[in-house]
Structures are given as C-alpha cells and as structure tokens.
Amino acid sequence: MQGESSSMTSKRKLIGRLVPCRCFRGEEEIVSVLDYSHCGLQQVPKEVFNFERTLEELYLDANQIEELPKQLFNCQALRKLSIPDNDLSSLPTSIASLVNLRELDISKNGIQDFPENIKCCKCLTIIEASVNPVSKLPDGFTQLLNLTQLYLNDAFLEFLPANFGRLVKLRILELRENHLKTLPKSMHKLTQLERLDLGNNEFSELPEVLEQIQNLKELWMDNNSLQVLPGSIGKLKQLVYLDVSKNRIETVDLDISGCEGLEDLLLSSNMLQQLPDSIGLLKRLTTLKVDDNQLTILPNAIGNLSLLEEFDCSCNELESLPSTIGYLHNLRTLAVDENFLPELPREIGSCKNVTVMSLRSNKLEFLPDEIGQMQKLRVLNLSDNRLKNLPFTFTKLKELAALWLSDNQSKALIPLQTEAHPETKQRVLTNYMFPQQPRSDEDFNVFCSAP
User: Fold this and answer.
1) 3-class secondary structure, 447
2) Given its phi and psi angles, is residue 449 left (phi above 0), alpha (psi -120 to 50 degrees) or beta?
3) Exposed/middle/buried for 126, CB within 10 Å: 0-12, 13-18, 19+?
4) Residues in domain Disease resistance R13L4/SHOC-2-like LRR (predicted)?
5) How many whole angstroms from its chain centre is CA 212?
6) Is residue 186 within 8 Å of 159, Cβ to Cβ?
C-alpha cells in the first residue's frame, strides 16, 4: 500500500465512499461495484466510465437522473444496474449492449415502454419495473428466456403479449395495480411459477389458464370484480396462500377443498352469505378471514380446521357461533366484532390458546362461565354489548392485560368488584361500566357501513 502514487491516493479519496467492493492487482485498481445512491445527482458521474471493463454492479438509486448516457452501455461486464426512483422517461435502445446484465431495477421512474431490443439482454433474470407508466410489453420481451422474477406493479398494462408463456423460467410475477382483464392462454407453460400477484386489476372472473399453472403457491386476486370463486381453483394442489378479498364474490365452490395445501385464505369484503361445508377439508388452514360479508351462519365443519390460528368473521350477520368452534385448539386470535350474537357457545372455553378475542358490537347479555378456561387471554374486547356483569370465573384470567368494556374507556384494565347476582345469588364481577348501554340500531348500521 505504501508504494501507491499520490495520484492514486487522491483518486481513492475521491471514490472511496462509492466503492464498497474492490480489490487490487499491483498498482491497478479493479473496481467492480459503484454505489452513488442518494447523492442528488442529475446525471451519471463520468468516473463510472473509467471502470467500464471491470464494473459489475452500479447503484444510482434515488437521484434526479433524467437520461442514461450512451457511454454507460460500454460497461459490458455489468451484471446489475439499479436506477430506481429517478426521473428517467425512457430506456435507451443501447441497453442491448449489456449482454451480461442479470438484474435491472428501473422502478419509480417515468418510463413508458421497453425497447424491442431488450431481447438482446438474454442473461436477465430479474426485472423490477414497478411504478412506471408502462402500457405494453414489446414482443421482444418474451425472448428473455432466463427471466425468473418480473415486477411490474402499478403500471398501465391492459394486456400481456400473446406468447408471454415463453418465459418458462418465471417463478415470481407481480402485476398488481394495472388494467388487466385477461391473461394469455400461453401462460399454461409457466410450470415453474410459484407466486402470482394480480391484485387491483379489472378481472371479472378467475382466468381459466390459472388452473393449469399447477405449481402456483401464492395467488393474489384481491381488489378485482370476481363474483364467483369457481371449482377450478381446487386444481391448484400446491396453493398455500390465496387472497380474493375486496371482490364481489357471492359463492365459494365446494371444490375449493381441492386446495389441500392452503394455509391462508382471505375472503374479506365480499358478498358471501354462506361458506361451503367443504371448507372444513382445508386441514392445513392457519388463517381464515371472512370479515365484511353477509354471512348469517357458519358451517359446523369449521371445527375441523384444527390448525387454525387466526379467524376473523367480523362485520357479518351472525346470530350464533357453532359449538364446534371448541375444536379449534390452536386458535390464537378470534374476531367476531359487529355481528348479532346474543350469546357464546359454552364450548368456546376449549379454545385455550386464544390470546386475543374481540366481540365488540354484538348483543351479548351474558358470557358463559367456561370463558374462565381461556387462561392465555391477554386482550378481550367486549365493548358495545348488553352485558350486566361478568362471570366470577374471570378471576382465573391471570394473563389479561386489556379488558375493553366501552369505546371511550380510558384505561386498558379497570378493577372489577365481586357482587351477588340479584336473581341467582351467584357471585359475579361488575364495575361502574355495567350494565352496558347498547348502541341504537341506527348507530350500529352507520358504524358497520363506515369505510
């Protein structure tokens, strides 16, 4: 190191901050990584071109760069080019020179399209181009046969190229927040696709081609206009995560039971009036969300979901819970807010691993003694009900850290006093918040329909 020339030393000072990875061969400095992120740059620094033979990674994140100079594309050893959050309006055709490029991040710019000759970047495996006004992909895009991950969220896509299925190595495809209504039939060739995000698009039905993508593990179809969850979904045997919330789904087909590996099922904010009994065959389910629907009853088969940890059925029209809920021994979180429950089944006491239970805005007039068996309860919300007191067995809930009895309660826990029930003479617990004053029905309806 001592033999270095003074010019080399000053050069090191100039770019030292920008070179997190470098090595030396005698007096020659070999730079493979440059990082100019968050430097307030309006153009690509000229120093970059001094290393066009050795540069493999270039980071220009979060600057104000408006265009990429031609010289940049002489850096033919470049494997990763990261320029998100800049002011680029186009991707120059010179990109075709980067024949060794593997990762390209151009997200959060103003790029409207990809050049046709992007097809020359045959080594590309990851493209992150989200948050750009891209309205279509050129046919050449489908020649990027090594692509494994494509992120094009929050763009203006209305369709995908007909031969999109040529990208047979794709494992992750994210197209959230576009204007897609259909998928090309050629997508049945995407046998390695594991994660597909089509949330916030304009699908009115589940694309038929999906049932042929047998390896799919995660599927987002939330915020579309689906009216039915068809039986074909049951052909996705590998599916682990399914989000179809915020649609207009009125029925879930019996054959959903075919999704035997499903762990998370999100059906929130739809128009469901009932769930099929076959939902009880989804034995691996750990999360089930059916809140904000029109359910009047839950199937007894819900008790077969022995691995269920989180269950949310708030904002429905339930007048009872099935006694089989007592079989949910792994349940940790239970939310049944804003329904019409006058009572809870005694079997709820068997849900001994529940730590959070919310029963806000129901018509509960009493709670069963068995609630005292739920000794891991830490948070219990009972506000806006019609309770006159609490069962004495509440004294067994030693872990309880928050007991909500009113919407405007100032402290999480308010002391309870023992009293004799005026009719049965049994010991009960009470305080100044009892008896609860229920909201009027008009208030309830306003509360439920609030955004």
Assistant:
1) helix
2) alpha
3) middle
4) 163-244
5) 23
6) no
- 24: phi then psi, degrees, rounded to nearest 5: -125, 140
pLDDT along the chain (451 residues), means of 10: 38 41 50 95 94 95 96 96 97 96 98 96 98 96 98 98 98 98 98 98 97 97 97 97 98 96 98 97 98 98 98 98 98 98 98 98 96 97 95 95 90 86 82 80 48 41
User: Between β-strands 149-151 and 22-25, what pairing exists: parallel, antiparallel or unpaired?
Assistant: unpaired
Those residues with Cβ within 8 angstroms of residue 440's Cβ, 6 or more apart along the chain or in another chain:
none
Closest to 249 measured CA to CA, from 267, 266, 263, 231 = 267
Interatomic CA distance for residues 265 and 252, integer angstroms: 12
- The encoded tokens of residue 97 equal 């020179």
DSSP 8-state symbol, 435: S
Which whole-number Å values give the CA distances from 312 to 180, 371, 447, in the listed order?
Answer: 30, 19, 18
CA-nearest of 285, 368, 275 to 326 is: 368
**Cβ proximity of 62 and 38 under 8 Å:** yes
For the purposes of burial, counting CB atoms within 10 Å of the CB of 410, is it exposed (0-12), middle (13-18) or buried (19 or more)? Answer: exposed
Q: Count Cα neighbours of 27 within 13 Å in the Cβ-side half-sphere.
A: 7
Q: What is the 3-state secondary structure (H, E, C) of 7-59?
A: HHHHHHHHHHHHCCCEEEECCEEEECEEECCCCCCCCCCHHHHHHCCCCCEEE
Coil, helix or strand for 140?
helix
Q: Is 25 exposed, middle or buried, given 0-12, 13-18 or 19+ CB atoms closer than 10 A?
A: exposed
